[in-house]
Amino acid sequence: MTGDGQVTVSLLQRILQEQATMGAAEQRVAAFVSTSPGEVIHMSMARLSQTCSVSDPTIMRFCRRFGFEGYQDFKLHLAQSLVPSAPFAYEQIVQGDGIDNIVRKTCRNSLNAIQRLLEDLAPQQVEEGAKILHAATWTGIYATGISEVTALDAEHKFQRLGMRCQALLGGKKQWMHAESARPGEVALIFSQSGHTKQMVEVAIAARAGGGRVVSIAAADSPLARVSDVVIAVLPYDRTELMTPLASRLNHHLVINMLVTAIAIIGGSEFPDQLPALDSWQTDKI
């Protein structure tokens, strides 16, 4: 906890927010700390002063600005703030961010997203979904919008396991397959929010024909309520339109979990169809 009561996970964000109000010397310290926090926690105060071309008293003023009594106390809390933790901490990329901040924020947001998945995901849901997919005679993979990329990723990886499946993109094609679903078939649906009307209608239609529905979506959503199995992945707030990786990354991780679980259920250490589908293994120059 810092001097003004804010949790340590927001320390880097506070440094960025206050940087514009600092003098030139402290701004140099803020710029280096915010872009290279992993280096700072291993640096002495003298080394940091030399790197930023400032005096030791400037470093002390910088630390006290954020409520810390000294440099060592500041480094301790900085180190703690680098550990991903719940609740999900999201650093928004803003106009004026340099490439260093873009790289750092993108990586840290992704790490925090994975950490949250590890803490929130119910393994038994993944296991139940894998068992249904393994037993399916055919799997239709449904998604819309940016989640279509996730559906294509799932299609590729499941086909490497020798599964009969297809990524179904576009409303007309999705509806045609969903309404003709039969017992033994599975609809695998990806939806970040679980509120997309089109995906909810696909699930209802597939189940009406005797098919089963496995959804990767938010828990307690309309889609979750009409699915046989939901692998609950919490959506994240404040994700930007142009950088949605942090909020979508976990859906791709769930695919990898399902692929591995299905392979183990089937007794296969490696995908049987890998050589046939991945010609790049033998066609490299």
Mean pLDDT: 85
Q: Which regions have little confidence, pLDDT < 50, spanning 5+ residues?
A: 1-9, 271-277
Terminal-residue CA separation:
55 Å
How many β-strand stretches?
5
CATH structural fold name of the largest domain: Rossmann fold
CATH homologous superfamily grouping of the largest domain: Glucose-6-phosphate isomerase like protein, domain 1
Helix share, percent: 40-55%
How many separate domains make up the residues? 2
The number of helices is 14
| Spatial extent as radius of gyration | 24 Å
Strand content: 5-15%
The topology string of helices and strands comes to: HHHHHHHHEHEHEHEHEHH
SS-derived structural category: alpha/beta
How would you describe the shape? elongated
**Biggest sheet descriptor:** 5 strands, parallel
Strand order of the largest sheet: 2-1-3-4-5
Characteristic key phrases:
285 residues, alpha/beta, Rossmann fold, 5-stranded parallel beta sheet, 5 strands, elongated, disordered N terminus
Describe the structure.
The radius of gyration is 24 Å and the shape is elongated. The relative contact order is 0.11. Helix content is 53%, strand content 9%. Helix 7 (99-120) crosses helix 13 (245-265) and helix 8 crosses helix 13. It has 14 helices and 5 strands. The model is unreliable at 1-9 and 271-277 (pLDDT under 50).
